[in-house]
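lol forgot to send this yesterday, sorry. struct tokens for the thing we talked abt
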């Protein structure tokens, strides 16, 4: 059984005539032989001061840098009174519990279960936060994909609507005829056509011998 600071009896080895409780070297040796750890020796020293015990070398033991006052709540260990005093600070609880284990202090009933429950709650909350973050990322990626698709569709529509129909395009000549502007003409234009005979020189080809004569132009 682990050493219990709170139930240790002073003057266990005192002489018959001693009436004053004492914390002397033989009492300290008895405590060590009973399993007291170095930090528990410090706790015994502090207990003796509170109870008015006659102490030889009153500041012989230090608190060894303990992260928690293990005698401040409840008994001389780490129990539910200490846990409740930490106000739900899981990291502080775990640190104080681990330090207590390393230095041989008593761990009270219910402490392990309470800390395990808080750890489970933390894991659940962390998982929920991770799921929410992952869902948000997926939604953002989906929205970005939709935006890209809409932009590509709009760009394709603009390209289709801006197809060339000016000079050089097929539509420029579909069903069209070459025309020329003629002053005074109907509508201001007149189409090219095959030249008529009224614009051709009259040739006098009366020579039957195969020779031709120059044509005469009547003005």
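and heres what i got for the seq, position by position
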């Amino acid at each position: 059984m682990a050493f219990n600071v709170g139930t240790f009896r002073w003057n266990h080895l005192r002489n018959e005539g001693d009436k004053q409780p004492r914390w002397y070297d033989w009492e300290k040796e008895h405590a060590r032989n009973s399993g007291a750890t170095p930090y528990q020796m410090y706790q015994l020293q502090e207990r003796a001061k509170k109870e008015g015990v006659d102490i030889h070398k009153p500041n012989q033991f230090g608190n060894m840098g303990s992260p928690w006052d293990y005698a401040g709540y409840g008994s001389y260990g780490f129990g539910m009174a200490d846990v409740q005093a930490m106000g739900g600070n899981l990291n502080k609880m775990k640190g104080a519990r681990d330090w207590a284990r390393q230095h041989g202090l008593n761990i009270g009933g219910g402490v392990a279960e309470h800390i395990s429950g808080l750890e489970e709650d933390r894991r659940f909350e962390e998982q929920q936060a991770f799921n929410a973050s992952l869902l948000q990322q997926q939604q953002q990626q989906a929205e970005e994909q939709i935006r890209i698709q809409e932009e590509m569709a709009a760009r394709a529509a603009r390209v289709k609507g801006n197809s060339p129909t000016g000079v050089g395009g097929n539509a420029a000549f579909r069903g069209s005829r070459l025309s020329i502007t003629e002053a005074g003409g109907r509508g201001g234009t007149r189409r090219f056509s095959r030249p008529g005979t009224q614009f051709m020189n009259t040739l006098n080809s009366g020579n039957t011998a195969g020779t031709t004569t120059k044509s005469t132009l009547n003005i």
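The CA atoms of residues 90 and 115 lie 7 Å apart. anyway ping me if u want another try
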